[in-house]
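Hello,

Our lab assistant flagged a job as stuck in the queue for most of the afternoon. It eventually completed. Since we weren't sure the result was trustworthy after the delay, we are filing this so someone can double-check. Below is the sequence as submitted and the structure that was eventually returned. Let us know if re-running is recommended.
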Amino acid sequence: MTTVDCDLCTAPVHDMGRVCSRCAAPLITDLRDVPALDAELDVTVFRLAKMTAGNTGGGHATETPVPYNATADDTGRALKAVLASWCALVSDKRGVPGPLDGLAPMSRWLIEHVTWLRHHEAGPDAVTEIRDAVRAVRRAIDRPRDRRYSGQCDGCGSALYASERASQAVCPVCVGPEGERTTYSVQERRDAMLSAMAVLCMAPPEASYALSILVRPIPANTIRVWAKRGKLLPAGVDDKGHSIYRLADIAALMLPEQQAS
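-- returned structure --
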């Protein structure tokens, strides 16, 4: 049987395509996600986002309302341009009517023509360009407010977020060879981050910020009260003369059994 090599991964392709099925599978997954991403883009572009300036200390940060997210809008327009260009090529070369205008109609239409694109000489470019454009949109979309930071993806470095009760965090960018999402254990990721930070010493405001991400929300004043009651011993002072405490000691006091005592 005659085979050729995939232009993207060099794996053998038995149906003479320029792109193998394994490399095309993530493209199909990305295209299926486009309608949902389109809806999220609308929210992100016109959300009254808050740009916060200042440190994580005890003062009040300056918040400036920004009614328009230009980055999200730009990535959405770029994705639409990429999809439109490939829809036009397929429509012209295959002699079939193109889709309606819009991210959702174009993405659904292209899914039906992925197999044809795999065999076209421009197929590798189609896979690369469309997937890059979808990645850019995912990065531009705001993090949902009800999700907590859960580390970074080992593959691409993207931030991982998960809801409070979720056991798995899904990378917003990486897709496996069969089109499956790359996932990580939320508890393992947070435990690893906490372990790496446990030896650090911070003042209550900074400790509150870090542990609220890694463990659960904790007010800076709670840490101060624990210190005042002798439950928490200072590990030194910072450059401003404020007492600092080991994150590991604070985290230990946050355990349920310690809260009950």
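-- support follow-up --
The delay was a queue issue, not a problem with the job. The result is valid. Residues 4-142 form one domain. The chain has a mean pLDDT of 82.
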